[in-house]
Each structure stands twice: as structure tokens, then as C-alpha cells.
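Hi Y.,

Following your request, here is the sequence exactly as I used it, all 859 residues.
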Amino acid sequence: MALKLAAVLLISSLTWAAQNSSTPKYKDVTLSPQARAADLVSRMTLQEEAGQMQNSAPAIPRLGIPAYDWWNEGLHGVARAGLATVFPQAIGLAATWDTDLERHIAEIVSTEARAKYNYAIAHGDHGRYHGLTFWAPNVNLVRDPRWGRGQETYGESPYLTAQMAAQFIEGMQGNNPHYLKTVATAKHFAAYSGPEALRHKFNVNLTEKNLKDTYLYVFRGLVEQAKVDSIMCSYNAVDGVPACASDMLLQQHLRQAWNFQGYVVSDCGAVDDIYRGHHYAKSLPQASALAVEAGTDLNCGKSYATLVDAVHQGLIKKADIDRAVTRLFTARFRLGMFDPPGRVPFSKIGMDRVESPAHRKVSLEAAEKSIVLLKNENGILPLGNIPASIAVIGPGADAPDTLLGNYHGIPSFLITPLEGIRHEFGSKATIRYALGSTYVPSWTAPIPAQALTPTGYENAHGLLAEYFDNKNFQGRPQLRRIERRGYFDWDMHEPAVIRAFPQDGVALRWSAVLHVKESGDYALGLANPDCDSCSGESTAKLYIDGSLLTQKISGRYGHRVQTKTMHLDGGKSYHLRVDYTEDGHGAGIELVWRPPVEVSLHEAVDAARASDLTILCLGLNSHLEGEESPLVIPGFDHGDRTTLQLPEVQQKLLSAVLDAGKPVIVVLMSGSALAIPVAKQRAKAIVEAWYPGQAGGTAIAETLAGKNNPAGRLPVTFYKSAKQLPPFTDYSMKNRTFRFFTGTPLYPFGYGLSYSDFHYSDIGVQAQGGKYKVTATVKNDSGAAGDEVVQLYASRGHSSGPELRGFRRIHLGPGASAQVAFMIDAAGLGGRKFVSIGGGQPLKAFTGNHFVQTRLPEH
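Below is the corresponding structure, written out as C-alpha cells. Let me know if you'd prefer a different format.
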């Protein structure tokens, strides 16, 4: 009895001690993240809380809170944080129609994110792009292909977008019952898809049906099913109220109807826009107060520094600020940021996982699965009989940056289409390269190896590269070699360079003899490799025949170019030298030129005529189409497009190469739909490769060779012309996307060819409770194994508003068949009485082997 009583007293004393301990509750790992966050916030001053509500949140040493920057990017690989695996741009991932692959990619991205975070924390780095809260995915719909940010999305279908984004979110956030692996942020809430030039003041007026069925549909599913932990509110206003101050969006829908439990972050500068752009508030403190009251918990920017004044002016209650900061710290506790590393299952992920061989393999797989075969006349592809000579032509043929898209990381290698084709076919065919044209007349391109002879090497092509361990080019170079092109990015972490320079910083000298075949005025210069997070200081100087031609200092944020035009005589040699120094913080340099238009065109036609086959790489890049670009040139307006056609200089190149009389395969690289009627009519084959990531050139070449059987399907409609569309500023869905378009497209949503031939039969529908079970048999009637994307649509008839209601990517061997089944809710059909199942071919036909249709039975 005495022992029992002693035990009771001991337990009681321990309980009392725990309850009265001086250890604060927020450090008690047994409490919920919400309880710990609330306790921590209760100990902060108003000014400290306001600081924590800005993306660059300062440390609070007295509470043991380290600095943290909420701004991190990971749309298709960890971005802006140095070396990372780079997957195809999001629009390309959507073209895979492969949800399992999308989840796997997100798991890789979150693994590399944790590795970088662990490394950064171990080295005292609390800066931007090394955190765990990621501002992806972009789930806005491509209502109009002219929008420059369509490349960041999963296309024009609410259903496809919702399915792909859900897998991305679950892969990023993980399935641990106690900790989030990372936080995913669904953006931009809501009704945001251009114009980019007007986004800080643009108002969207919508019907309730358009708002719910189109612009809110995806977000609702990601909140209710995928449990996304963060939402980013958008720049624009909806029905006259800025999105980040909209009670209708952030309270009525997000919090009340959908029961969202996470936090809301503003797009960068969007709170400031409430005051300065939309003129909805009379002051910045009032704008901040309106945003917080509506439910915007975190400000990307510094506007929330005015919240202290807002409280003192009576514009907002401190309780509203407490609520917001509690939500933010709940997320940080769920990420394990304040717990012993041993308790957090992701804390031991190391940098050896970053861009590992396994991750690179998945990047190649994704690039291959994203490729859409749009035309294949007489089965010219795959190239079973390799031609004796192949011309590879076009601005996209050998442009490393084009592979990346926007919001990208830096891989250890970039394989362009030219490099992939040389590797795949070079042992059996002569490969000729010609630029043909730049993307637009004002653009530049890398100076090709064939125009350069390395200093001291008469029988080679390229540049002599010399790397020094000091910034004065003194002593012997630590590394000396021939490089094919002038392209250097420190973050590519090439082993030979890293071994030579274990410390940050490098001095690089390129030297070569430059020679051209035709005389003319050539623009020669220097550019940054595509980098929107470069923070390092760098200096580059370009000398021709010993005289300084141009120089470039401290470039950052994108493809900034410095050129100077000089006359070059055909057949004459010019001694070229580039001296480049940097401190090793994400900078880089590229040697570029812009030949005379007619010279490039002549060279391309000559190459095409001399070859048995031409592979013509055309399209866009993420500087022409992108986010709020300063670029305003024919065809492009601040990142948006004003036409769907190829730039005129590329149209001329296409026609000239086709007129050369040899078979032409067109490879498109773009982030959006292109109107290419001439290519559709005259080219032998057309391949859409999007912005395919680091292994894009290999994926393209292996598809042409038949090692990859293409099964990508279009996630967007390819229209014949922008004339088929309503005005860009019209946000109604009338005559937009496959759901409402009444015209005839160039290529329809869901379209894509294969090297296999698939046949659909035995469609069946059964009513089961409140659902329909739809089944069909798919058979591969060819001798080539391949993937098929089975698509299920509901409609009111043969020509009325189809809605995607299911899809599945399957693999079938030669002659193999499989039954595919889908379950769809009867309540969500909205009066649609028919279902069609098939894949690849035009949906509106609803006939033949590719789509079979049946009427739904009465429930």
C-alpha cells in the first residue's frame, strides 16, 4: 500500500510540475501545432507580429524564433536555389495526363527541397528560396492562349487541372500524420489569367455560374480533397473587390463553404495594389487592414509593416492579427521547424538526393511522356531508316535556356534538341546545323561551335576555356579545355569546375577564332543564362582582335543581353576573347550573336537542300511569353501574346525550308498553343515538346527514333487564329476552351497521335447508387507497344459542351487489350445525358475507333 501511495504521489507531483513548469507551451511537442502556435503568438508584441506577417520574417531571438522567408518556388523542380532536377514545365506535365507520374515528381521536388533546407539551416542560411513553403502549383485555367503564364498551368480543363494539381500537392506535402514535408500553395485565387500589363488594377466581372463552375472549381477540390495548406490570392479584383481583400472569396467560399484550415498569402505586391492599383483603400494601412480582415494572413512584400499604424488608427483589431499569425506559426510547427531534428522524419535528407541519377531518370521519363505527336504523314515517324544526312535548323535547336520554361532550377546539364539528335543519329547520319533565324528579329542566339575555332586548335570547333583561381587571370589556369559553346552557369555544378574551384568565385576566359561565311552586320555580345535569382556580382568583357567590343556588369533577373553590332567579312578570321569573373552566387555568362536575317536564312536553306531530312525546331521561349515582361514588340505585350502565329521571322524560315523540297519534321517548343496552319498542311510530321526540362533534347531524339512511343495529349486547344476567340479581356467562357468553343480548332483538346493504333469497343454504363460505372475495352491493334490516354467525357449531345469526367494513362503491348472503368457522380453531370470514351482523336467526332458514345440510363 505504501509503495502504491508513493507512486500516486510521484505521478501527482510530476503532473503538477509539468503544469507549472517554466517551459512555455509552444515548446511542448505533445501539444497540437495550433495550441503551440497560439501560445507563441500570445508572447509577441504587435510590432513583432506585423514582422512575421511579411514574407521575409525577421528573427525574434528572445522567443527562439529564427528568421524565415516564406517565398520559395518549386513549380517543376526546386527553383532559384541552385542545383536541382528540372522537369518539364507544368503545361508539359499536364500533357502527360499521368497523375501517378505527377505525384512522383512532386515527391522528388519535396525531397530536394528538404535536402536544401536541411543544408541551409545547418549553415545558418535562413534566406529566400531555401525554405519549405512553396508557391506552387499554379492552378489558374488557360481560358485564352494569349496569356503568357499559361505555361505554368495544367491547361484549360478544370477537371484535368484539379486531378494533376491534387497529386502535386499530396506529393509535396507528404502523408506523415504529424509533419508536413513541405507546404504547397495553390495560386492565384481567383479568376487570374491576364492581361499581364493590367494585372495590378484589372477587375473581373463574372456570373455566379462562371465563377463557381470555372474559376473556383479547382480550388475547391484542392481544399476539400487534397487538403492544400496554403492559398495565394491574386492581383486582380473580382466584381469590384481586390481578391486579397475579398470577403466573398476568402471568407464565404474559402473558409466557410470549404472549411479551409491553412493560411493565405498575397501575391507579391497585391496588398499594395489594393491601395495604389485598384484605389479600393484610401491608404496603405487601410489596405493592409482590409486584407487581414478578409483573411490574407501573409503579405509578399512589406505592406504589412503598416499594420501597427492600422491598429492605432482603429482600422483593425489586434485579435485579427493574432489569428493570422497563429495560422502562420501553425504551419511552421507542422513543418517541424521548432522540434528536435530527431523527431522530424525529413531532417536527415541530404544533398546527395539533389539531382541524383534516379531523379534525372524521372525527368527524362516526364519529358518523353509530355511529347504530343500532332501530325505523322504516311508514318514518317519513327525514323526506322535513318537518312544519310539530317539538317537540324531553327532558333530552338540549340538554345539551352528554352528547355527550362520559367520558375525553374539549374540542372547539372542541359541537352538541346541538336545535342540529342547528334547523340541518337550522329553515328549513322551526317548532322548539319543552321540557326535559320532568331526567335524574333531583336533576339540573339548562342554563337555556334561551327563558327569558332579554339585558340591553338586548328582542327577543332568551339572555344578554348581557361578557368583561374583568382579574379586577375594570374598564373596558370586550374582547368583548361575545349567547350562547344559559350555557356557558363556556376550553379550547374559541373564536377570538373567544382574540383578546380572548391571556393566560391571563378575567373573564366574563352578564346577562339571567329569566322563567318557571308559578310554582313553581326550583333555580338554577352548575356546571362536564364536566371531570375542571380545575386552574385559578375563582370564580363568581350574583345575582338584585342579591342574591347562590349562589356556586361552584374547581370541578374532574366536573359539580359548586351550587344554591339560590327561588320564581319566572309572568309576573314577575327580573334575573339571573353574575360569573365564572378563571386559564385548564381551568376553566369553566355556568348551570343545575331547574324543578319538573310544570312541566317540562306544558311538554313542550303543545309536543308544538302540534307535528306530537316528537323526544324520552332516556337517560343519563356521570355517572350511569361510573367509581366517589359517586352513590347510585334506579337508580344508584357509577356502576353497578341497573336497565336509564330513570329514572322520564323514563319519565313518555315516556308523557306519547306520550299527547299526535302521532308520536314517540325518540332515545336512552347508553353502555349501555336497556330501553325502552314506546318499542318506541308510538314511531314509535327511534334509538340513544350519546355521539356533538362533532358528535353534526349526525349525529342528518342521520340523521333522510336525509342519513345509518344502518348502525350493536348491539355489546351490549338486554335487556327486569335480571330476565333473573344477579346482577351473578356472573362466569360463563351466560345472559349473545348467546353464552350463552337468553331473548328487546328488541333482539339485531348488530341495526340501514337505509333500504335488503339481500338475502343464494348462501352457499358451501369447505374450504381448515386454514381455511374462506365467501362470500355481498349485494344492495341498494332505491333508497337505504347501508352494510351483513355478519356471520358459527358455531354448533352454530339455537339454540345463536353466536360472531361475521367482519364487514365495505360500501357498496352502489341495486340493486348484491357478493360478500363470509371465512376462518375450522377449529381455532378448537370443534365448531361451522354458519355463518350476514347482517346487521341478529335472529340467532337464521337465516332470510329477512337471515341464511342452511349446514352446514360435513367437513375
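The chain has 21 helices and 37 strands.

Thanks again,
Q.
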